[in-house]
Amino acid sequence: MSDVPVSPGGLPVLRMEAVRKTFGDAVVLRDVDLEVAPHTVTALIGASGSGKSTLLRCANLLEDVDDGAIWLDGEEITDPRADPDAVRRRIGVVFQAYNLFPHMTVLENITLAPRRVHGVARADAEEHARELLERLGLGGKAGAYPDRLSGGQQQRVAIVRALAVRPRLLLLDEITAALDPELVGEVLNVVRDLKGDGMTMVLATHEMGFAREVADQVCFLDEGVVLEHGTPEQVFGDPRQERTRRFLRRIVEAGRL
User: Fold this and answer.
1) What pTM does this model have?
2) Would you call 66 exposed, middle or buried from its count of C-beta atoms within 10 A (0-12, 13-18, 19+)?
3) What is the C-alpha to C-alpha distance for residues 7 and 23, in angstroms, rounded to an integer?
4) pLDDT per residue over 73-111, tens digit each?
5) Residue 223 near residue 22 (C-beta atoms within 8 A)
6) Spelled out in words, what is the top-level CATH class assigned to the domain 8-98+169-253?
C-alpha cells in the first residue's frame, strides 16, 4: 500500500542469527539464520511442526528466544533493554485465525490499535482505514460486524488491521489455512498487491504454487532447521537437499505444486 517505509542505510529489515527456541525438552528452532531484504517476500515452507510459526512469533517477540539474536533495521530487538511493545508497533502480524473483536464493527477493529497504541487521532485513523478497505475491495463493509462477513472477507479485514499501523514488516502465518478453497484466491491476491507496493513480508504457507510465484526467497524448514534457502527457481526447481526433494515430491504427488 502507500507509505511503505524505507530501510535505513540498506540494512536488512529483519536479521536472525543462530536463533534457538525450545519448549521444554523439544528444540523447535535450531540455530536459525535468516536475512530479509527491504521490499522482498520471504516464504517459509515445510511440514507442519517444522518451526515456521514459531519463527514468526520469535520475530515479533511473542516468544522469547533461548539463544541467538534478532535485529530489526539494524537494532537488536532481542537485547534485554529493548522495549517489546515498541518493537511490535513496527511489525504487523496476521494469523490463521482472524482474531477480530466480534462486538466491534470492521472500522472499529481496524482503528483500535492506531488510536490506542499509536496515538493517531480518530478522524485520521478512520480516514486511513477507509482508504485501505477500499483498496482491498471492502469499501462497503466499514460498519459491518465480523459475523456478517465471509471467511475471506474477515481475513482481508485482519490484513487491513495489520496494515493500518503502517508496519515496517508484515508477518503472515498460514493466512489461508482456515479458509474454504474458493476463498483462498481473494486473500492471496491481496498479498500479490502488497508485494507490488513494496511491502516487506515473511509468510509461512502451505500454498506452494503461490510461494513459487510471489516469493523472492524461499526457506525450507525441517525440524527447526533452515535446511535450504534460495530463489524459488532454485528451491523448487533444483533443490540441493534430499530432504527438500522428498518434501516437494510429496507436494507434487498431492497436486499442490
Assistant:
1) 0.91
2) middle
3) 33
4) 999 999 999 999 999 999 999 998 888 999 999 999 999
5) no
6) alpha beta
